[in-house]
Amino acid sequence: MNNDSSSRIVARLKDRISTSAPGSRLPSTRSLVNEFQASPVTVQKALQTLTMQGLIESRPGVGTFVRAVRTARPSDYGWQSAALGSPRAVLPTTSSTMRSVSNEAISFHSGYPDRELLPERLVQAALARAARGDAALSRPPVAGLPELQSWFARELGAVTPAGINPPTPSDVIVLPGSQSGLSSIFSALVGRGQPLLIESPTYWGAILAARNAGVRLVPVPSGPDGPDPAELARAFEETGARMFYAQPHFANPTGAQWSPERGSQVLDVVRDHGAFLVEDDWAHDFGITTTPAPIAARDDSGHVIYLRSLTKSVSPAIRIAAVIARGPARERILADRGAETMYVSGVLQAAALDVVTQPGWQTHLRNLRHQLQTRRDLLIGSIREHAPLAHIESVPKGGLNLWLRLPDGTNLERLTNECESAGVIIAAGNEWFPAEPTGPFVRLNYSGANPGAYPQGARVLGQALTQNHR
Amino acid sequence: MNNDSSSRIVARLKDRISTSAPGSRLPSTRSLVNEFQASPVTVQKALQTLTMQGLIESRPGVGTFVRAVRTARPSDYGWQSAALGSPRAVLPTTSSTMRSVSNEAISFHSGYPDRELLPERLVQAALARAARGDAALSRPPVAGLPELQSWFARELGAVTPAGINPPTPSDVIVLPGSQSGLSSIFSALVGRGQPLLIESPTYWGAILAARNAGVRLVPVPSGPDGPDPAELARAFEETGARMFYAQPHFANPTGAQWSPERGSQVLDVVRDHGAFLVEDDWAHDFGITTTPAPIAARDDSGHVIYLRSLTKSVSPAIRIAAVIARGPARERILADRGAETMYVSGVLQAAALDVVTQPGWQTHLRNLRHQLQTRRDLLIGSIREHAPLAHIESVPKGGLNLWLRLPDGTNLERLTNECESAGVIIAAGNEWFPAEPTGPFVRLNYSGANPGAYPQGARVLGQALTQNHR
Fold first, then answer.
1. Which chain B residues are Cβ-neighbours of A49 within 8 angstroms?
2. Cβ pair A120, A451 in contact under 8 A
3. Full domain range(s) for residue A406
4. Three-state secondary structure call for residue B51
5. Are residues B171 and B271 in the same domain?
6. Nearest-CB residue to A82 (from B274, B336, B345)
7. B333 occurs within a structural domain
8. Contacts of A84 in chain B (CB under 8 A)
């Protein structure tokens, strides 16, 4: 037996294995004996070595094969840090509101309505129809299916007062969710390093999109009635910003609803500063005691960029939204969308249009309104009874969230951990602040699973709060 | 009759109309007479004025209504130009390859396979099943449906040689189309103003995504065998770039297929420069006489970022692709995807997985291979016979495109216009060059509708070329 000879065979076979697919068969021992002009024992020894190294496996009576499952060796991707340099911003890969948790938990954290609040049958029927239709195998235009563009334009046009030009279908760009719209608006219209005025607190997804676009966030405090117009004007003047992002209807997280007068005042300030108002009408379908009247309907001068999403009200799987904008701003958003995704799946667009044009959709929205009211009131009652230390800033007239101010000095991390260990998942308010949080807040979403558990959830929160302030 | 009184009524009603929804009813003439203390004739005159101004309409016997369709007045969005400043780059909203043209035209321009090349029944059945399943009403994780991540990882793992760690499902990020992946890779890993090496010519969508991300494009010439490794090394050294974007298999537009040796050489150069290779395997399912062997399978050190799309082979409506990457690079891409779209529709992911795991998918791919071969050969034969002035640079072993070098001095604009007026749509090659085109080229796509018309299309091209060089 020649050790050198065996090593030589090992080396040659390793070369061969390195370019072979896993599972491919090695020549028989007999062929290898011939090929390498070595003894069967030497060949066997080489094969044993390769087997021990995890590179091949023999199946008795069948043959010897390149191993499919290889022994993992530790990888070091350190070189990438040098190649990539510092990240542009420390970005969370996801928010706590996107967490999936056990079904047994009482979930107040999620931002997405529970399945029982979705128009399940309409969605399934619409997707089934879309599957049979042309949309399943064709490619729609970059700006969207013309019929869906028309639907979005008509919805806003229906509340446009006389004397104002209603939007046309060509003002509409269909989006694969409003998050994509935020990204495009911030990167195509504001740009890296430039200031963006943003309500504080506000939707964490908007903060995330803005940070990812590298814009400079300038918080504008916003209470239950919306931002103070004088404060907004000062912020425009001090920063030279040309855009203000806001949720005038059932703002996430505060539930704030601007009065029509406040809307007009803000629009005037925006116009006076030659700026844009990004009106994120995320909860258009979630009115409880009022219905949102978009500010965009009162503007035909291109100052309002209107975002309308169907994702949360139709289905998270039908990820469809629209941006309505006019003038060069619309062209720049469209160019960014084209470069980013080229077009939005026609199946999703067709299914979304199908759902919202069914008579059952209006029935669904009416039922939804009642369900949200019941859930909201049950949660408020539970908090007032079982967690009196939590202050309800205002009773939201719509939307999905209750915003609670906690006593000064509350340790939010400890509180959320204590609640979680008792099976209640709440979202600390910090994520909704573009800068430092202005106090200890939590957001409770009342559209999750199992509203019957709200009293129990409130009890757990109340106990954790009491312990926190003992 | 008092003219002043009529004007006063007009003014008051205009105020009221400006805050009314279109279609809402005005009070009766009788009520207005009472309200304004005016004569019926004066009120009628005021209503006529408003009718002529297009603000109201009367429906005899029904009433008077705020007009739904208002006379458009010209809008001036000039203020936006001041607010927006210069665009980051002059971006086309779309490529000529995305144009929709009349069904009668002979289309060589589109980048998307004709419906007859798609697995129509598999797609419809998959979407119908997805419509009934959980995916229709739920939200998948940011990185994708775990089963689909596994499928993409297994596909690449199956050709990973022994001794290399195959990718794991958690290395996979599911994308809403590979264009989104390109955008994220260029903006999260290269960044504004930084150099990116890119094959020339190459896919216009990659050029578009890179320009939109603001990266600095550095063209690396690439022929039928891929780029010259020495040239690539020089480009890395001269620019300090840390990334090279390429399509090693059936490159769009040239059809180039790198040999395994060329792949290894390029990978060595990339590794030597501590850089990334973005391997865009766009035509993985479109092999004709060979099957792509991804370079990514030979790398487990995080140097290759692998893009694999299903959009073109499954259906343009099932806009699903994946990026497979390891290390910090993968985390940065994921963070950018999270900020950009949060997640990809579960219906599309479930349907895509359904299609590619059906036994019929393999049958479809085999048939597709034959159809592409027939179409390619028919087109090549037609060009050789009827347009001999067009030089076929190389016969593609896969993909969807034939790349033709035209005689020096060809006026591409005149040529494409002449062909179009004769009903033949071709794409001028200029769009595929990241810098100046290196000559007059056209790209003919052989996956469009009506391959029977190829001889006629070639005849039209041949005549236009002859006229161009008479």
1. none
2. no
3. 96-112+361-468
4. helix
5. yes
6. B274
7. yes
8. 189, 242, 328-329, 332
